[in-house]
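QA checklist item 7 of 12: single-chain prediction sanity check.
[x] sequence parsed
[x] length recorded as 209
[x] structure emitted
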Amino acid sequence: MTILLLVEPLLENYTELPAAIRAGAKRVALADNLAAGGTTVSKGVMGEAVRYAHEHQVALDLIIAPRGGKAPYNGVEIKMMEADLLEAQQLGADGAIFGALTDQNQLDVEVLSTLIAAAGGMTLTFDTVFDQIRPQDRGAALDWLGSQGVDRVLSTGKYGDDREADWIASKRLADADSVVLVPADVTADEAAGVADALGVKLVYGENVL
């Protein structure tokens, strides 16, 4: 099966944005500090990136994370994320990418409810912490995410040894909740094969262009 393939590159700060657009990207994700897992860019970067992307008819998603690492967020960090989401919304960002788990690798529904409310009107993507949720718990997690209006879930497919099998299993669950599973950490060389194997239209990664 041939799929019309879309790619969403994950960029590090504004400096990479013009080149990604020249390379043909129609939607991009923007973060800072990718070596630490990706953190939220500054307000100034947000505003300029949204302006530049929209001038070139490109949609912009923002990573919302106060620091690297995936441990549960504390109260101060949650307030930072909420403020960043409100700022992103006001500046006209198209989407937000974030996640929050408990220390038992379950959805932190209290935190997520706060963040989802702050991100009203934007495309909502649950980030790759999804991969830390045990496969037997993912159905319930996706049920909740779907019920809260989350549009997409990123997954690297790296829970076990077989990425394709992991993606296929998660996609089946996501489809049932009208959530789009987006294969993440995909390279340009892998993109077409992954899209064909899974029957998806969109793949995501730092090196996907």
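[x] summary fact logged: Strands lie at 6-12, 27-31, 59-63, 95-98, 123-126, 152-155, 180-183, 202-205.
[ ] second reviewer sign-off
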